[in-house]
Amino acid sequence: MTSPQDDGRVAVYLDFDNIVMSWYDRVHGRNSYNRDRARIAEDPTEPEIAERLAAATVDVGAILDYAASYGTLVLTRAYADWSSPVNAIYRRQLVGRAVDLVQLFPAAAYAKNGADIRLAVDTVEDMFRLADLTHVIVVAGDSDYVPLAQRCKRLGRYVIGVGVAGSTAKSLAAACDAFEPYDTLPGVPPIEKPAKVEKKRDQPADDASPAPEKSDQKPTRRRRSARPAEEPASNDAVPAFGDTPPEDLHAVATRLLERALRVGQDKGDAQGFLYASAVKQHIRRMDPSFSEKALGYRSFNDFLTSRDQLAEVREDGHERLVRLKA
Q1: How far is residue 29's CA from residue 157's CA, in Å, rounded to a whole number?
Q2: 25 Cβ contact list (under 8 Å, min separation 6)
């Protein structure tokens, strides 16, 4: 079996509908997506729905950056109905990361398990077509992928699963060589729990607000505005250098360095020190356009030294080691 420490060649397969729905339920509560499905399909730009969708935005960059820690991304595919407005908002983000978008037609015409079957067929075909493929990463939480994970392991590939905590079948996690909850990936913000408003008990009757006057007019539905009052919150994923204004390049580079150190530290020794060359290699996997010279530094070591508030650097012979500061 392939070792997880090898500088491998990685294939990533995303059941995109699964991860979007699971993360929506994780953020807003169990079965929230099913309850809001009709309103989302009717008008995803409605202010309340747009706000809920923005709060549950999936950071595709965090998934791909984690996958890049295992080796070179040979291919990445995302399976969904990209004509759906919920999925369409991710198209620019996915195309910017060179993800191949596989179109699946609506369930009425394509059957319930269209994504599961297509993803599994493509994965098995790729393993036989690409003999040098070492790692397979399946981003989903459905137990239907258990046979796929088992088959990939039997064919000598190292299988990693990524899914949302609480929505992933335990059998799928057990079938993988490694499993990482999406919630814990570097760069994914923690879920903010809404503050509970305690109701006052034994409130005096005279403090109660007066009851509204009755009217003979029949109640009418509140009209939904065609456009939201405010634009949905923007995605906090790490943008590509080519899509970033020049004044923000340094901030983007700092986030890339922090994410690379966090991912590497989880896999490194207890002290968390990593070889600077390995950190740079991981950053280049996350964003191939990264260049310390474009930021005005003569070397990567100079770049690390400039981030002394974030990274701790020390010499070890001819090697330079770096770790994330506490």
Answers
A1: 35
A2: 31, 32, 33, 164, 166, 167
- C-alpha closest to that of 145 among 128, 124, 126: 124
- Strand, coil or helix: what is 135? strand
Cα–Cα dist 20/27, whole Å: 11
The string of pLDDT tens digits covering residues 35-77 is 999 999 888 899 999 999 999 999 999 999 999 999 999 999 9
pTM: 0.74
Strand bridging mode 319-324 / 274-275: antiparallel
Instruction: Name, in order, each residue with C-beta under 8 angstroms of 3's C-beta and a sequence gap of 6 or more.
Output: 158
Q: How far apart are CA 186 and CA 34, in angstroms?
A: 28
Dist CA 181 CA 173 (whole Å) = 10
Q: Answer for the pair 50, 225: CB distance below 8 angstroms, yes or no.
A: no
φ, ψ for residue 180, nearest 5 deg: -125, 120
- pLDDT for 220-245, tens place per residue? 444 444 444 444 444 444 444 444 44
Q: Are 235 and 301 in contact (CB under 8 A)?
A: no
Nearest CA among 89, 69, 65 for reference residue 16: 89
Q: Which of 298, 326, 302 has its CA nearest to residue 312?
A: 326
CA 136 from chain centre, in angstroms, equals: 17
- Cβ contact 111:118 at 8 Å: no
